[in-house]
Amino acid sequence: MTDRQQAESPDRRNVTVIGAGIVGLCCARALQRRGCSVTVIDRDEPGRGTSFGNAGIFATGSVLPEGKPGLWKRVPGMLLDPMGPLTIRYSYLPRLTPWMLRFIANTTPRRVEEISQALSTIVQPGLRHYTELLDDVPADQVPIRRQGCLYLYPNAADAAAAKADNATRQRRGVALEMLGPDEVRQLVPAIGPDMAGGALATASGHTTSPLALSQLLAARIAADGGTFIRAKVTGFAIGESGPTHVHTDQGDFLVEDLVIAAGAFSKPLAKALGNTVPLDTERGYHVMLPAPEVDVRVPMLVSSLGFGITPMSDGLRLAGTVEFGGLTAPPNYARADALLTKAKRLFPDLKDSGAERWMGHRPSMPDSLPVISRSSRFPRVFFAFGHGHLGLSLGAVTGRLIADLVQDRGAEIDTTPFRADRF
Ligand SMILES: Cc1cc2nc3c(=O)[nH]c(=O)nc-3n(C[C@H](O)[C@H](O)[C@H](O)COP(=O)(O)OP(=O)(O)OC[C@H]3O[C@@H](n4cnc5c(N)ncnc54)[C@H](O)[C@@H]3O)c2cc1C
Questions:
Q1: 6 confidence band (pLDDT: 50, 70, 90)
Q2: Which helix (H) or strand (E) is 307 found in, with range?
Q3: pLDDT band at 85 (very low <50, low <70, confident <90, very high)
Q4: In ligand 1, which atom is closest to the CA atom of 310?
Q5: Rounded CA separation 421/271 (Å)
Q6: 8 A C-beta contact, residue 399 and residue 133
Q7: In terms of CATH architecture, what is 1-67+106-144+205-278+365-423?
Q8: Radius of gyration (Cα) for the chain, nearest Å?
Q9: What is the pLDDT of residues 213-241, one digit of tens each?
């Protein structure tokens, strides 16, 4: 059934979504298109959280979890190298340890296979769900491009190390074109001598502006009667059958159905509403280059260096790396500078005048799977958070699945792996 047909159904509900990041906005828009009345509460303007600064890649080939077998052996190195693609701040280690132990427990070959299977069901159709969610917007107003995504291998060792991941991708049906150095050079002429080949995930895409995409969704929601409230949520008034009001720094608001989509900040909200979840944050950085003076047309992921390179409407974005340091510690922008240094090795002519740096909080679960779920305690409360490295890619499909849950419809995708009570 299409969203339009479903909107004609009598199952109209008043739904409050907490969080106007890409995930909350997609949930609100999907629910609205099904005929629900939606209110979105955020302490900030739509799309200004982590969704603002990501690499903008709809990574339909990301069917592998972040944790790989044997990763635990790298933990000491992560503590010693604050500029590495993956690092842990010493001061945060005690708080991180329970999460890290769960993360490592999910790196056995059996778990990696199960997680990959579950991820595949939501990652691969991720871009198609955006097409459906935005099919009432003229194509030239949608800041999404479908030129694939290039996995770039700077040296032969990286290319060799990627073979197993690419075999898994192909086994799961991800369309990949393996490219030699000459073919990569044709696609990205500005690339320097450090390059041993690549793999083009042809069904992937990117947004030319993550912020513009969020703003487009917010504008559609508002145009169709949705309400936005700028307030920080501090708690809930709970009645016999669930929350009756949201407490905020701007007063209390009546709620019927509630969706928690507050990204990395969802943990205390979910706890107040029935589920204790092992949500932590993997902090990431970007450098935006407004005048890079190199011609890059396809987005690229350089896994060995831990970041992506994406052509956007306002310049070239270098974005990625993982830093475990919690929600409150100040950014270490030297990590963003390290991105630039590494990118200059790949693109020797890259210019950095006017560069801007940013840090954001990925909402990360230790099994690399999001929470897309009904609360275990309150039947009219739903959770949509924990999308880690893939929140942009998974926004629209999450919206679809949350709308199915809110309206009690059978979903086309099995949501069991994403339940909040799976831990
Ligand atoms: C460097 C980097 C690169 C990335 N690259 C990619 C990529 O290429 N592709 C991809 O798919 N993903 C990528 N990601 C991941 C992606 O950005 C995130 O998974 C996604 O943005 C999470 O969206 P969200 O809506 O859950 O969270 P957010 O965008 O953080 O939104 C949560 C919202 O909740 C609000 N909020 C929180 N607490 C409260 C409260 N108490 N009261 C009111 N409002 C509240 C916040 O203000 C915020 O607006 C990247 C992430 C980083 C850091």
A1: very low
A2: strand 307-312
A3: confident
A4: 8
A5: 11
A6: yes
A7: 3-Layer(bba) Sandwich (3.50)
A8: 21
A9: 999 999 999 999 999 999 999 999 999 99
Residue matched to tokens 């990959």 = 116
Q: What letter does residue 265 receive in the DSSP assignment?
A: G
Residue with the nearest Cα to atom 22 of ligand 1? Answer: 391
What pLDDT sits at residue 152? 96
363 lines ligand 1 (CB under 6 A): yes
User: Which range has the worst mean pLDDT, 3-7, 44-48, 290-294, 347-351?
Assistant: 3-7
Give the ligand 1 atom nearest the CA of 234: 41
Q: Is 267 exposed, middle or buried (0-12, 13-18, 19+ CB in 10 A)?
A: buried
Instruction: Let me know the angle formed at the C-alpha of 111 by 403 and 371, rounded to the nearest 5 degrees.
Output: 20
Q: Over 50: is that where the pLDDT of 207 sits?
A: yes
Beta partners for residue 324, in sequence order: 88
Give the pLDDT of residue 9: 52
Distance CA 318, CA 207 (A): 14
Q: Is the shortest distance between the CB of 392 and ligand 1 below 6 Å?
A: yes
**Ligand 1: does its nearest atom lie under 6 Å from the Cβ of 44?**
yes
Structure-token match 């060792």, residue found: 157
Instruction: Tell whether ligand 1 has an atom less than 6 A from the beta carbon of residue 51.
Output: yes
pLDDT tens per residue, range 288-299 = 999 999 999 899
- Which pLDDT score, from 0 to 100, does residue 11 have? 66
CA of 49 to the centre of ligand 1 (A): 5
Which amino acid residue places its CA nearest to atom 52 of ligand 1? 54
CA distance 47 to 209: 11
The preferred substitution site among 16, 48, 51, 394 for testing ligand 1, maximizing ligand atoms within 8 Å of CB, is: 51
* Ligand 1 center to 194 CA (angstroms): 32
pTM greater than 0.85: yes
Distance CA 301, CA 312 (A): 15
Structural domain boundaries in the chain = 1-67+106-144+205-278+365-423
Terminal alpha carbon distance of the chain: 33
> Which tokens is 280 given?
């932590």
Residue nearest to atom 16 of ligand 1 (CA): 391
